[in-house]
Specification:
alpha/beta, 6-stranded mixed β-sheet, 4-stranded antiparallel β-sheet, 25% helix
Length: 523
């Protein structure tokens, strides 16, 4: 992967201006420490935050795209913003815990959420009378009335939700499963409007435990589009239009004028899906392919290159809308990635069908021992009898070739990873984590080229840029976590990061700034 280019960007957007060429190096600050009050009393002249996530977008993708497209929207963000060259996703590097990281400041140790498909010993199965405990907790498209449609909470079928025997056997919505509050709850409690758009109705989890954090939630289901690059671009466009409506001061439908939210934004899936079906032409990831490489549209455009171009022009439309509405001087833009994807070199891809390997090996120790196996570029394993975890791990190690080699972690060994990000939560904690060898993806042959969730560099080293009022241009080269986005957003809006439960629990600092001791959030 090419080294980060230290270049002057020729293009410029009106919202960024056309001043001198950028100076590149370690940014001394991201948001300056001015204490002026603007608008509604928000700090630093920020009245709105536009939070954008590009799933699958590695740090090297940003570097390479800007070098090849010097007049692009992304190049303009880099030219006037702070680029975090060592930004990392959560562990696991899956969309659900990563989304929560950016919006709570926490990892699974505090959020209690390890994945969008997990297990909980305390809950009872969906549709049951709560006579037994121990249940699959799935907050994917599977909980919709129709797995291919839906855009809001009303599209969630309560009959498909796990049940809480300690609360009258009531269904547990995603927001009720989350153990800590979100930036949306804090911002709304301060009297400001909140909005978000993401890929499933289940992302209503961002309402937080109160269930009321979001004024305007839009979650157009992406499941029907996730094997087709053309369709996923169209699905992303639904969310782009929603954000444009909100920047115009309307709700996501464009029908009701409500004012521009203090926090708004969306998740892009186009790059993620294009990496899975198109990928890169070279092993370094510097040349995205222009056609689908596998799947029903193999040999046909669009490919990863066009997906990146679509996301860039969509962001450009948002920036232009901000200009047109006079929002540029009061809006902080944060572009981040929930995760990368691996392997980048598609010639190293090794698919292993998890359904044909793990359950049989686990149940060879004891029939019915396998409770839940969630597997992408790692495997999380929950057992019906936790005391058998070491035995299962021994069997898996004995059949290492069948599961892709790599490392196997059991119990407290999982807790030791990444400073305890996956520890705690005894009724939810996975018994075993398998990080397979390089190139291994738990998927059937021919179904995809890559995936995410693992602990690898390619899964976790993501792109992140922040631009807006009082944000200095340059690079921060120290390691940061996407968890730091959450308290940074609150500080920008004149609120306190310590109002987030996970920030207090995990001592999450803001993104590095000069005026407060490298992002320390003791205010």
């Amino acid at each position: 992967m090419s080294a980060r280019k230290k270049l002057a960007v020729a293009g410029c957007f009106m919202w960024l201006g056309c001043g001198a060429n950028p100076t590149v190096g370690v940014a001394q600050s991201a948001i300056r420490g001015e204490d002026h009050d603007h608008g509604h009393g928000h700090g630093h002249g920020v009245e709105h935050v536009l939070l954008l996530s590009i799933d699958g977008f590695h740090d090297f993708d940003l570097t390479n795209y800007v070098a090849a497209h010097p007049t692009s929207a992304l190049a303009s963000l880099v030219a006037r913003g702070t680029t975090y060259t060592q930004a990392y996703s959560t562990a696991p590097s899956d969309s659900f815990p990563a989304t929560l990281a950016m919006t709570t400041g926490g990892s699974p140790v505090s959020t209690g959420v390890y994945y969008d498909a997990s297990w909980d010993d305390r809950l009872s199965p969906a549709g049951s009378n709560c006579a037994t405990r121990g249940a699959l907790v799935s907050y994917k498209e599977t909980i919709n009335f129709n797995a291919n449609t839906g855009s809001g909470v009303a599209d969630i079928n309560v009959a498909k939700l796990p049940r809480d025997p300690d609360a009258g056997c009531t269904p547990v919505f995603p927001h009720q499963y989350l153990k800590v509050n979100t930036i949306y709850e804090v911002i709304k409690a301060a009297g400001m409007r909140t909005a978000v758009a993401d890929k499933h109705p289940s992302y209503e989890i961002l309402n937080g435990p109160s269930g009321t954090g979001l004024d305007d939630f839009y979650g157009p289901e992406f499941n029907a589009a996730k094997k087709d690059i053309t369709k996923i671009i169209a699905n992303d466009e639904l969310k782009v239009v929603a954000v444009l409506h909100q920047l115009d001061g309307f709700d996501h439908t464009g029908a009701t004028q409500v004012g521009v939210p203090a926090i708004l934004g969306m998740n892009f899936q186009a790059v993620n899906i294009a990496q899975k079906f198109s990928g890169y032409k070279d092993a370094a990831g510097t040349i995205p392919d222009t056609v689908a490489f596998i799947g029903a549209a193999a040999g046909k455009a669009p490919g990863l290159a066009q997906a990146m171009d679509y996301v860039d022009q969509a962001i450009g439309r948002m920036l232009a809308k901000m200009d047109a509405q006079g929002l540029t001087d009061s809006t902080l833009v944060i572009m981040a990635s929930k995760h990368g994807n691996s392997p980048v070199d598609r010639s190293t891809f090794v698919p292993i069908d998890p359904d044909a390997t793990f359950p049989a090996l686990i149940n060879s120790v004891s029939p019915g021992l396998s409770a839940q196996v969630t597997a992408d570029t790692l495997a999380l394993i929950w057992l019906t009898d936790h005391s058998r975890a070491a035995e299962v791990a021994d069997v898996l190690r004995a059949h290492s070739a069948n599961i892709g080699g790599g490392q196997i972690y059991v119990g407290s060994e999982i807790d030791a990873l990444f400073h305890g990000e996956m520890s705690g939560n005894p009724t939810r904690h996975p018994d075993i984590l398998v990080q397979p060898g390089p190139g291994v993806v738990y998927a059937t042959a021919g179904s995809k080229l890559c995936d995410h969730a693992g602990l690898r560099e390619e899964d976790r080293h993501v792109a992140m840029v922040m631009a807006g009022p009082h944000v200095e241009q340059g690079e921060v080269n120290q390691t940061v976590s996407i968890r730091q986005v959450a308290p940074t957003i609150l500080k920008a809006l004149g609120l306190k990061g310590h109002d987030l439960d996970a920030v207090r629990l995990e001592h999450t600092h803001r993104l590095p700034v000069a005026d407060d001791d490298e992002g320390n959030d003791d205010d």
